[in-house]
Design goal:
With about 190 residues, the chain is of the alpha/beta class. It contains five helices and eight strands. It starts with a strand and ends with a helix. The mean pLDDT is about 100. α1 packs parallel to α2. The radius of gyration is 16 Å and the shape is globular. It binds S-adenosylmethionine, ligand 2KA, iron/sulfur cluster and magnesium ion (MG). Iron/sulfur cluster (SF4) binds next to loops. It comes from Pontibacter rugosus. Pathway: Purine metabolism; 7-cyano-7-deazaguanine biosynthesis.
């Protein structure tokens, strides 16, 4: 759908220069999704893996974020193998709604109520990033935390349109439950892509 060089704004790699590769197509249907224009894959022309990588190589950073849409709709082995062979570290932003493919240095699993993660994905997550839309989502976040590995980093991220109301609740929750961390969509505060 699009690719752009920016700063990873969210989660465990916040602040790192990153080349984002956004793949079109998603059938999860989050009502608060901030990239609904990604949902219909047919609206976005296909791009060859070689062309994606040569565009990425124009920039100095060697950290790639594959996102979407839901990137696990696709077999990501060719793209990630070639990125790594060209010296990129690879990371994915995924709902986990489909089984994993691809070779990953970092996996961010962000589970959704609208289409649950595939059970096989949880043990591979380096980061669990739960979007909090209302108070009941904290309990729901704990259910997902019980499924990831012991070394997985746990993040709570306010849903953007409710961030003013939800962020203070996340702050108190993390103070009371310190295995969790706060994740903010810092790119939105910085007004960058
Ligand atoms: C647009 S999604 C694309 C990748 C994948 N479909 C997923 O949901 O993980 C990228 C990240 O943005 C988060 N996100 C999407 N809309 C959001 C919103 N309105 N507020 C906060 N986070 C949001 C998702 O949970 C996910 O972690
Ligand atoms: N700067 C920036 N950081 C991000 N982290 C995850 C994003 C995404 O949409 O997957 C995203 C994004 O869209 N922009
Ligand atoms: S799974 Fe990701 S891309 Fe799909 S609707 Fe939800 S937030 Fe948007
Ligand atoms: Mg985004």
């Amino acid at each position: 759908m699009e690719a752009f060089y920016t700063i990873q704004g969210e989660g465990g790699n916040t602040g790192l220069a990153a080349y984002f590769i956004r793949l079109g197509g998603c059938d999860v249907g989050c009502h608060w999704c901030d990239v609904k224009e990604s949902w219909d894959a047919e609206q976005h022309p296909l791009t060859q893996v070689e062309d994606i990588i040569s565009a990425a190589e124009e920039f100095p950073g060697r950290f790639a974020v594959i996102t979407g849409g839901e990137p696990l709709l696709y077999n990501l082995n060719p793209l990630t193998q070639q990125l790594q062979s060209q010296g990129f570290r690879t990371s994915i932003e995924t709902s986990g709604a489909y089984p994993l493919s691809g070779n990953w240095n970092w996996i961010c699993l962000s589970p959704k109520k609208f289409k649950a993660p595939h059970e096989s994905v949880y043990p591979f997550a380096h980061e669990l990033k739960v979007v909090i839309f209302n108070k009941s989502d904290f309990k729901w976040a704990e259910e997902h935390a019980s499924k990831v590995g012991a070394n997985c980093q746990l993040y709570l991220q306010p849903e953007w349109s409710k961030a003013t109301e939800i962020t203070p609740l996340i702050v108190e929750y993390v103070k009371d439950n310190p295995r969790w961390r706060v994740s903010l969509q810092t790119h939105k505060y910085m007004d960058i892509p």
